[in-house]
Automatic annotation (TrEMBL):
Membrane-spanning segments: 118-142, 162-184, 191-211, 223-250, 262-281, 293-312
Provenance organism: Timema bartmani
Keywords: Membrane, Transmembrane, Transmembrane helix
InterPro entries: MFS_sugar_transport-like, MFS_trans_sf, MFS_Trehalose_Transporter
Single GO MF descriptor: transmembrane transporter activity
Subcellular location: Membrane
Source organism phylogeny: Eukaryota, Metazoa, Ecdysozoa, Arthropoda, Hexapoda
Name this protein carries in UniProt: Major facilitator superfamily (MFS) profile domain-containing protein
PANTHER family (UniProt xref): PTHR48021, RH09188P
Cellular component annotations (GO), alphabetically ordered: membrane
Amino acid sequence: MNLQNKTAPAVVCRAAQNAKRELRELITRLRAEDETVQLESVCGSQKNIGGSQKNIGGSQKNIGGSQKNIGGSQKNIGGSQKNIGLGGSQKILSSIKNTLSASRPCNAYCQQEYLKPLMIVATFMLLQIICGTYLVIFYAVSLIARADEEREVTGNEAINPFLIAVLTAVVRFVFVCIASTLLFWVGRRPLAIVSGVATSIAALALGTFLYHNGASEEPSPHASWIIAGLLLCYVAANTLGFFVLPGVAVGELLPVKIRGAAGGYVFAVFNLALFGMTKVFPSFADSLGGHGVFWFFGLSTLLCTVFVYLFVPESKGRTLQEVEDYFKEKNIMWISRNREKSSVESNRI
């Protein structure tokens, strides 16, 4: 019993020492494992850093390629600027000058391609007035009454001026419809020339008949019907061309850039001239007489026909751009135009 009691504490001490030793070894092993894990994580981070550096290196290579591309683009831009040079600068300056000149209406109207059509259209419309196109409409009753007074006829032999006025309006309406249809098939120049020649013949014939019938001792018994017939022929021939074509010329001959403003100016001048001519016509008719008025209309129509033949271009079958190109040529009269170029354009159409 005593021996057992002595050895028991020693065994307990050894067991405690062994437990402490094992605990120290376990702690040491755990620390070593922690350090290993930390080292592995550090190595992995270094690998990631290395991969990131590789990526950065690739990005730098891409940046270098982009810089090369930028350098090539700059070289191309420099070459383009060299190619532009003085020629490109001159083109830019010329376009600026054209823009500034187009923004100034006075400068535009002084240019050849704008001045020529403007003068042609304005002259055509002013000649239309002195041809009697509108004056016969306004003073048809007065002209017929004046013719009866000069012939010194009354009663049943006299012409009913109001009936003639109605007949002239009907004839004008019918021939306006005919002229509007013919514009699809016939050129403007042939229609105007035929109308001018026929109007001139009718006006001169009417003036001559009035003169000889008034001076004759034995007037013709059918004078009233002859006068009415010649007057209606004059109205029909005049309406067929000279009544409708000046308005058509405004839309077909004036260039697009000035058509709105120039058309307004032309019609304003036309209406002012028509107003003035309407006011002075009674005094003019008193001084010339009935026959003199129609002689004046006939000669004025001949003058207008010659003007159309020489200056007014043919616009049927041509585009607006082709008409504008014609006015850029150096010629003034239509008969002196470049016929080869016109024939090529007609064949192409």
